[in-house]
Sequence to fold (698 residues):
Amino acid sequence: MDLIIVLQAGVATGTILLFATLGEIFAERSGVMNLGVEGMMLLGAMSAFSIATRTGNPWLGLLVAMLAAGLISQIHAFISITLQADQVVSGLSLGFLATGLSLVLGEGLSKAGTITLIPSFTVPVLSQIPILGPIFFTNQKLLVYVGYVIVPLAWYYINYTRPGLHLRAVGEYPAAADSLGVNVFALRYLYVFVGGMFAGLAGATISLAIAPGWFSELTTAGQGWIAIGLVIFAQWDPLRAAFGSYAFGALRRLVLDIQAPMMLFGLRNPFYYNPYWGFFLEMLPYAFTIIVLVIGSREAIRRRLGAPTALGIPYIRGERGV
Amino acid sequence: MSESTLNQRKSNWLPFTVEVEPRLTPPPAWFSWALTIGLIIFALLIGALVIAFAGGNPWAAYSHIARASFGSIGVLSDTLVKAIPLMIVGLACTIAFRMRIWNIGAEGQFFLGAFGASAVVLTPILPSDSPQWLFILTMLIFGMAAGAIWGFIPGYLKAKFNVNEVISTLMLNYIAVSWNNYWIYAVWTEGGFQMSRMFPRNAWLPRLTDFADRVPAFGGLTVHFGLVLAILAAIVVWLILYRSQWGYEIRVVGDNPPTARYAGIPIARNTVLVMMLSGALAGLAGMSEISGVVHRLQGAISPGYGYTGIIVAWLAKLNPFAVIPVAIFFGALILAGREIQPSGIPKMIQGIILVCLIASDFLMRNKIRIRRKGEA
Fold:
């Protein structure tokens, strides 16, 4: 088992989590928690794969996936922003709806055959860097590179631009933002849409690039939920989100790859000789999510940081709130 | 002075204006139920549109669901069999949601309940010739205890570290499935198959068909004792919520956490206890399913009962007794849904119903007036 190869694959797997986590960060920074990420990712994965098989064009699939997930996220936006319903319940129900919709529309898609995938390539100079080159810049999917570019952009956008300031204001103190002429409702709709597009992109990344195909609910296998956990671990910061996503991606790959070789670091590989121990390995990413949540929550208490103040609270004009 | 957001968007081109104002008093009870029934019909209509879009025949799908779930005494009994775990899981969600703890982990607690009950037979904790009442009682205790442990973990993490229970309970669902799989594949496998051996007859919950020699009409009816357990559980949950001090505390915390804190209600302790009770109920559902229907431990024991239970609890408006008829409706959907194509239809309809339900809550909180232009 070559550690470099595991990490290289881990970065690719982590890109899925990265997109979903970034999208959720945008939505939550505006004050709207969307627990429908898993469902939106499934919808993205399904529509991307479906369009790609029908048209032979993965780029069109990618675009449709982002639009589909973005559009369905607006149901949650309407219910939680305009109708002021509880965001937890509304997000959960969106997740159910999107999952069911994906299963119905994706019926028979698993037998669709081969499709043109998103291409991979090696970056000329950067791939020569020792260790980092082979992990990050060698033979990766185009979408993985998109991830590298988007993380600093998102970080800069949120922290150092005017629209980013508005985004944070709407999530921290909507009444103040409103009084300064920032349209709280429109911005929240917008960032829920952005979050949905990212979730769709994450889904399309699975079905068109990292683990091609449509395997109904197993396509995402809970990664949308892990992403929501990562948002808390990341303290709503894109840079930390990137770190968490790639670490989790590497863990997911490790869990798969560690079972293959007979010898591990010169010892008999216990997971090779006891294949049923693999079930405990399967638990690891999920158990780690809980651990990461504990870390994130403790840190939030200690550093008095944490969730955007208005997260989860519908903004009602003229009413006292945060 | 509270104004709604919709209020300010009066259109200039419609011949009427839509005004929204908050209700000062809760609407009458009939309104709530009429709304629920109305939204189910609305959701089924939307579902029909999607089925038609996906190339299916909505009328055929729906009439198939109706016939395959209520068409005869036999299928009605099968519907009830599917509804029993939904009733109990719905109650598990009801008690947690009433305190606004979002236990999405009923699925995992269900699996652990099934595991705990199976352990009694397969470890074995009791000799296989034990009397039936002892078997069932022990399985009940072990199943509920295992579910309670699975509920304790997120409850404790929330109380102690303020860990978001939605995510922790969901993660535990995945862990529970792997945990059960380990035992099914590695320890209790029967001849390499992915299932345990069949339980002895005295570890089965009694079914109606078991009494067919005395009452011939019961022949073939698979409704089992779990139905009685479900109804008992509904009564117990109702008693706890509305006739006990603990239930009062749960409701106060759910309605208004700051008030509860000022009143000195121990929120952290109640969080742990409610999660454990919720987990124990979901575990009971798993035990009843394993001992009443499946009669062995295997992988596919739940078509998402734990998740459907969430919708059942909401549709029943967190009313323990309303959970029972609502669970029967969804039991029908699950039973019939196994045969119709595309196979995702029941799940999608559940999702649509839940979305409409959450949205319709707006009408419970607000009055909508449509006025003609020019009217004062």
